Amino acid sequence: MRTDVQHVADGTYLVHGTHTNWIILTEGDAATLIDTGYPGDRRQLLGSLAAVGSSPEAVQAVLITHAHSDHLGSAEYLRAGHGTPVRLHEAEVPHARRDFLDQVSVGTVLRNAWRPGVLPWVVGALRAGGTEHLPVAAPEAFPTSGPLDLPGRPVPVHTPGHTRGHTVFHLPETGVLVSGDALVSGHPTSRLTGPQLLPDMFQHERSRALASLDLIEGLDGDVLLPGHGPVHRGSVKQAARRARDIALADGRSPGTGHSGTPSPHA
Question: How many domains does the chain have?
Answer without folding.
Answer: 1
